[in-house]
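Exercise 7. Predict the joint structure of the components listed below.
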Amino acid sequence: MDRVDGRLKVTGAAKYSAEYELPNMAYGVLVGSTITKGRIKSIDTKAAERAPGVIAVLHYQNAPKVPGYIQAAHPTEPKPVGQPHRVFYDDKVYFNDQPIAIVVADTLERARYAARLVKAQYEEDKHATDFLKHQSKAILPTHAQRNPKHYLNDYVKGKEDAYKGEPLKVEGEYVIPTEFHNPIELQAIVAHWEADNRLTVYDKTQAVIGTQNAFAKEWNIPVENVKVIATFVGGAFGNGLHTWPHETAAIIAAKKVNRPVKVMLTREQMFTMVGYRPFAWQKMGMSATKDGKITAITHEAIGQTSSYEEFTESVLQQTRMMYTSPNITTRYRILPLDVSTPIWMRGPGEATGAFALESAMDEMAYVLKMDPLEFRIKNHTDRDPERNLPWSTKFLTEAMQMGAEKIGWKNRKLEPGTLRNGEWLVGYGMGVGTFGSHRNRASARAVLRADGTVLIQSATTDIGPGTGTAMVQIAADAMGMDPSKITFELGSSLFPPAPSQGGSATVASVGSAVQAACNSLKKKLATMASGNAESSFKGAKYEDLAFKDGQVSLSSAPNTKLSFTDILKQQRLPELEATEESKPDNPERNKYSMYSFSVHFAEVQVHPLTGQVRVTKMVSCADAGKIVNKKTAGNQMIGGAVGGIGMALTEGAVIDDRFGRYVTKDFADYHVPVHADSPNIEVAFVDKPDFIGNPLGTKGIGEIATIGVAPAIANAIFNATGKRIRELPITPDKLI
Amino acid sequence: MNQFQYVRPTKNKAAIDTVAKEQTAMFIAGGTNLLDLMKRGIVVPEKLVDINKLPLRKIEKENGAVRIGALALNGEVAEDKLVMEKHPLLSQALNAGASAQLRNMATVGGNMLQRTRCPYFYDTALPCNKREPGTGCGALQGYNRMHAIFGHSDKCIAVHPSDMSVALVALDANVLVSGPKGDRKIPFSEFHRLPGDTPQIDTNLQKGELITAVEVPETAFTKNVNYLKIRDRASYAFALVSVAAALQIENNTIKDARLAMGGVAHKPWRLTDAEKALVGKPATEQTFRQAAEIAMRGAKAFEHNQYKLKLGPNTIVQALKNAAAAV
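Solution:
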């Protein structure tokens, strides 16, 4: 099935947050600090205030107070592990380009002009932004310090660091630079106080309900007084999973000027005012027997965070559960620096961890002179070794075989640097990815209308994976109706609550709720049909009925039919509604370990003189449970692979530590991959259902689409050249 | 945004007079670089003189040269039959630059006048002698991976970003300009300048002077040519290093050669000594390697661009190999 919103998107009819125009709207432009750490001594706003069209210039001294800022510091509340940056709260500067003022004017151009006239004087403190220089100051996250059972604590299975004493081993350090999500749609919000205590925001977010709760708390108003609209989201990759300073700044400004205020970040501000994938250092140690059984793995990781908020992510999970090894040690630390707080970015944590683990697997295979595919299959595990539980489903070996066939793995040479295409060196590599198969509580509402159409609503979002399309398909299957008769609405806090779109869990969570709401609607229809004394369905049980083509029929007598609309007519109902909440309450879940799996294969060519790398072919295969829509699921896999190409070859942000300021903050200097960097990417799914996880049989796709791609490419480069690059991105200068 | 006046004259003289007289008036053509600079507050013209109505867009043969009007678009020059036939090196260089969308807006004159892409130049919160003389060079002790290895000074180590200019300097082009004092012709190698103590000045163009055309003399470099650009992604990225190579080969002996580099200096970098070392030699990798070594004499790299000392000669060798093998 094609995307239900495809036409809207390609014709420009889809309306994104920054495109909302409200009567009497004003425009806000943020002024960023030019120092990295210290305090604001003074702000001179006179020139800006005198500039044409300027309505207000707000900063910590004159901005309306945000009640939630004070509440968060209340002594009776549990001590938080830091807190999100409180914009315009005080004179402190925590990171470079931190918003220190907002200029509100009657047009965007006038606001932008005046913003340049705001001048601040600072008292500067010494800052720390160079990760590798300060690496020794890394700490165990507070959560882990407080709770010895927290998963971020050190993990030791068998003997600690057992690889060290082994004869056949590898050891290496891996570095991933800070990466930015850089969706094409810039972060934007229109904030509108409809009354003193009623707020509506048109906001780029992955979390409608999460944002609603955050702003209700921040402004100390009832949750139902906050309306959040995010009908279309132009890519997010995780940076819409949090609320950011510019959103609160817009709400503050709207409060002050008593008009709706629109704020859209610039591309440069997308590098400082929203989150990013944190800079990470990792160390791997691995040992194996001569015949290829892993005997020990040690995986250490340090991730960057800010000085005011502890951001942690699951970097080491894959190492704990992917391969059989009697000895596994993992250690995770965070390093607070004078930077803004990171956030989850596609394949959060695991994409970072998989780069080290899957590179080390490749390195170990070379030490053993073994095919890395064979090495992985040899260490395949049929149970989750960490939790000692069976997998709900795991078809990774099948996926590996599919992928190996499609990429032409048999052409790969064991000896690196031996395969050529003219001047170019050719290599093959692979990488495995995994991510927990999650499901959360979600609700949906289904309404059958007199014209026979069904409207479904849920407060989820669609950041690109095709959620609307999948939900229509799930509803069509459940209702026994043609998809063209079904509309799915999302992206509004007025709809039944749903979790944020993240963690590859939307189809499992919201899809299950949509199915439940449809089933509930069918039950109501069945009750009405069988309860009607004149009906040939009299006394029929729900189980005896079939729902097909918008009609109810008796399973035993398929010609005894009644259309959904006729049931409404008989009951004299204008419409019929059912709202259901669906949650992961199946007790079977506790008996299994649930993960999605992927494997990526890359064929690369490397020029030995110039270091140019071309990814000439990619194959991504996934065990992601049942596939609802092959087109949109395939799109997700391709998008994830392109993201992985960026991670492997082109992306990485650089801070000039002397200033604590990014020097690669536009599309000219921060290189997201372009079409010319991406080959034709082939996708295949095992497509076998997992009903332990949810009644639809699906598992997540979004994260595993990118986890494991970067090491597949790095491993292919090694196979082509014999050069092991452990610091991403692998640019030409590293290969000459 | 900053207030500015906008005029669109139809005669060269009117355009020249305005920019010559008014201190902050600037020409605008495609605007692909100027608008960025204005948005970031790096240049603040009070008047923009839109020259798109001036009759400067023709590409024609004239006195043994191809004369390319200053307003000819990068995209149309790259695909022009005459250019492809007489100067395939120029066509290749143009197609290596920017993206199709930008090439369809950017003009030949504007391409030559684009400013450096040094991040310190673009961020008004950071020091840059080119943007604000006297503030220091941010890149010198900073992030200088993209920066110069030839001809830099302690005031500026920025590079000129144009690909087209690298081909034009190799092809001995001339820049035709009209100004308040009349017309003149500037050899391409003398058009851009080295930073010295005045990095704020990119070219030898005088205030009010308007580029009207580029004249590329016809040569025998119509077959064995190659523009090779090494960059961080396959398209839409500035050069780490680029090389324009052109050879005339007879019986496997090099009769004549042209060689220039991009991404290595404040101007497109012509390599005349290396050219001389090629002439009379067999077209072999050994010859190319010797020329590349000569080409790199005097190169001095900084903390993050040491790789250019190796990538530079490698790219020269590869470009010469490609040129020799071209059919």
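Discussion. Chain A touches chain B through 37 residues (CB under 8 Å).
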